[in-house]
Write a structure and sequence with these properties.
alpha/beta; about 25% strand; elongated; seven-stranded mixed sheet; binds magnesium ion
Length: about 400
């Protein structure tokens, strides 16, 4: 019996087991690049940042481990499970794998739909109060004709017609029971599965933007949609200083460098991360590191600054934005940054969840002038370029 206080309320099941054969090429469509990250990662970002989603599991293809690991590095996900021969079999595998968690609700979503909206997730979950299932769908607006041999035959009334999308939300126990019951019958989506088992499914209006990437043309459309959707470009800057004190190493960019002193500070005093967090928060217009993590709060005493950076990254994702680039300049005589520069850059890229090509770590001295020149501490200057959804430029 699950403990109600620890029971996950809602788990997202992302179906990424397809081969994407219509798109061709050696890489399945969910792992193709969409604006600097794989489609799957773009899809996951929304769910990772959504406050109503307690956990996420991806159903993968049997041979996709390397693609999956690269696409999901640094994201907090349940371990993936391997799918079956059909989408329906893959979803059943995913649902069976959540038996231990017994979530109240599950959102089943295609990996190749990277444009679902946060409010759509909210409305789907809310609809489960009234029905055991609820699907995202768009009303049909085009005139529908049935045709044969190149000629129109019959007008199809479009009244009441909807095109199904995902996410499709279900009370977990109901959809698991339904999938088990109809296993072996080929049904087109999970809503059809629940209905075949006698369950009612509500319809929740979604946006055309939440389309599924199937063809090469779709991928091009997705690139354009993503670029235009994040047209509110902002640059933020941050600056921080920490003084050396007694200790045995320096936290910098999320890793501990060997040194005969440490930085003095309330947290681990990772001066580079502090400057970078302020740069990201600055681009968001969202206060500074002190307002999010007050030094007066004992929770942050000795805290790993990597969690501050993850928080800032989460604030960007929660606004539907992306980090385009960061640039960090470390100002000091000691330690020598050069030998560690590649590791510092890799660490920041991993914490930010962006490719290393979008992270710059530089170092300079002040020619022995001032406090850094005297070896009393380290200063860091950072800049972050982020892209927010276009709507944000008007609020
Ligand atoms: Mg600081």
């Amino acid at each position: 019996m699950a403990n109600p206080t620890t029971e996950p309320a809602c788990i997202a099941l992302i179906v990424a087991a397809g081969r994407g054969t219509r798109l061709g090429g050696p890489v399945p469509k969910q792992y193709r690049d969409l604006g600097g990250a794989p489609v799957l990662r773009r899809t996951l970002e929304l769910f990772v940042a959504h406050p109503r989603i307690d956990a996420i599991r991806v159903v993968t293809g049997a041979d996709d481990d390397a693609h999956y690991n690269a696409a999901t590095a640094g994201l907090a996900l349940l371990p993936p499970v391997v799918g079956g021969a059909t989408r329906q079999a893959s979803v059943l595998n995913g649902l069976e794998s959540l038996e231990a968690q017994q979530p109240a609700a599950v959102l089943i979503h295609d990996a190749a739909r990277p444009f679902a909206a946060a409010d759509l997730i909210d409305r789907l979950i809310a609809a489960l109060d009234q029905a055991p299932g609820a699907i995202a769908a768009v009303p049909v607006v085009d005139t529908l004709w049935r045709a044969a041999d190149g000629a129109l035959e019959e007008l199809v009334p479009r009244d009441g017609l909807w095109r199904a999308q995902t996410p499709q939300a279900f009370r977990y126990a109901d959809i698991l029971a339904a999938h088990r019951k109809v296993a072996g019958r080929a049904l087109t989506d999970d809503a059809a599965v629940l209905r075949a088992a006698g369950g009612m499914v509500a319809v929740v209006e979604a946006a055309e933007a939440n389309f599924k990437i199937t063809t090469e043309t779709d991928l091009t459309r997705a690139q354009a949609q993503r670029f235009l959707a994040n047209a509110d470009l902002r640059v933020g800057t941050g600056f921080d200083v920490h003084r050396f004190g007694p200790g045995d190493g320096l936290w910098l960019c999320g890793i501990k460098l060997p040194f005969d002193q440490s930085f003095i500070g309330h947290s681990d005093a990772d001066v580079a991360i502090h400057a970078l967090v302020d740069a990201i928060l600055g681009a968001l217009g969202d206060g500074d590191i002190g307002s999010h993590f007050p030094p007066s709060d004992v929770r942050w005493k000795g805290a790993a600054s990597s969690q501050f950076l993850r928080h800032a990254v989460g604030r960007v994702a929660a606004r539907g934005g992306v980090i385009r680039h960061v640039d960090v300049t470390i100002v000091c005589e000691l330690p020598k940054i050069g030998p560690h520069r590649a590791a510092l850059r890799a660490s920041l890229a991993q914490l930010l969840g962006v490719p290393e090509t979008r992270v710059s770590v530089k170092a300079t001295t002040t020619e022995k002038l001032g406090f850094t020149g005297r070896g009393e501490g380290v200063a860091v200057q950072a800049a972050a370029t982020i892209a927010l959804p276009f709507e944000s430029s008007f609020v």
